[in-house]
Write a structure and sequence with these properties.
The structure is a single chain. The chain is α+β, with helices and mostly antiparallel strands and 203 residues long. The protein has one domain. The chain is built from seven helices and nine strands; from the N terminus they run ααβββββββαβαβααα. The chain has a three-stranded mixed sheet, covered by helices on one side. The chain has a two-stranded antiparallel sheet with strand order 3-4. It has a two-stranded antiparallel sheet with strand order 6-7. A hairpin with a 2-residue loop joins strand 3 and strand 4. Helix 1 packs across helix 5 and helix 5 packs across helix 6. The longest helix is centred in the last third of the chain and has 29 residues. Bound molecules: zinc ion. Zinc ion binds next to helix 5.
Length: 203
């Protein structure tokens, strides 16, 4: 399977961030888009959230939404599936990777999600031989984090620190991620691991 090239990744991140804004998933959408930052790292990890730059001794700048993707996480490898921040191999995570290896042996590429959502038909893993869908899903996942933490920050501005910090993979994240995955048609076919899209193309 071909990797997504850097230009396509950039365009896709931009498109997903815009979609989050137009789908009403972020507070202050204009500001969100204006400040949205994307960085490519050399690692395998992918993450999304907000960041503040240090602007002096104990002084921090305004928070901005950010997505970081490692160049090595942009593709799916036969052994590992899509690298998605799964550096700690707990027993539960290993199960998912074992499944990915099993699919890979049959020539199928499994997009791997976190164990507790991996089996979910909308926000879970899926099998597709199109690298774009793997990358798009990973980007939706990370933009959803950037959106959830941005939303929290905006609420804090208005209501001080009484607003509880969001759980990284909690309900708000799932709501945003689900909306994005639906918008881009990254849904699994009922009863299988195949992506709907794939089947539509084959027909
Ligand atoms: Zn995550």
């Amino acid at each position: 399977m071909e990797r997504m090239d850097r230009k396509l990744i950039l365009e896709t991140v931009d498109m997903v961030a815009r979609t989050a804004a137009t789908n009403g998933l972020v507070h202050k959408p204009d500001e969100f888009l204006q400040l949205f930052t994307f960085k490519v790292t050399n690692g395998q990890g992918a993450n999304g959230g907000i960041h503040r730059d240090k602007i002096g001794e104990r002084k921090w700048g305004k928070p901005y939404p950010i997505v970081r993707l490692g160049v090595q996480s942009h593709h799916t490898s036969r052994e590992r599936g899509m690298a998605l921040n799964l550096k700690k191999h707990t027993g539960k995570v290993d199960k998912v990777w074992q499944q990915a290896s099993l699919f890979a042996k049959g020539g199928d590429w499994l997009m791997v999600e976190y164990t507790h959502i991996h089996c979910h038909p909308v926000i879970g893993g899926f099998v597709s031989d199109n690298a774009y869908y793997h990358g798009l899903a990973a980007i939706c996942h990370e933009v959803a984090h950037a959106a959830q933490f941005w939303n929290h920050e905006v609420q804090c501005d208005a209501k001080c620190e009484r607003v509880k910090a969001p759980v990284a993979h909690g309900e708000e994240f799932k709501h945003i991620y689900r909306n994005l995955r639906r918008t881009f048609g990254l849904l699994r076919l009922k009863g299988t691991w195949l992506l709907d899209e794939q089947r539509a193309e084959a027909a």
